[in-house]
Amino acid sequence: MTRYAKPAALVVVRRDSTDGTLRRVLPDGSTRAMPRRWPPRPMTEAQIEAAALADPDNPPLTPGRLASMKPVSLARAGRRS
What we know:
Blueprint: E1 12-15, E2 22-25, E3 31-33, H1 45-54, H2 63-68, H3 74-80
Antiparallel strand pairs: 1-2, 2-3
């Protein structure tokens, strides 16, 4: 017998049409407003650049990496999204 991991809980979020806030739909059908994270904290251009360079998961695109990239067909790109 194979044991499977318990699936993660499904989180349903909808936008309230009256004021545009995001609301989490709870299992009983009621909703709860989600905290707003906008506007983002103010940053200077230098701070934005430093934060982008410090991100290990998304390094800056160098001319060498750009030259080695291959184009992706629209059909393939659509299937992945």
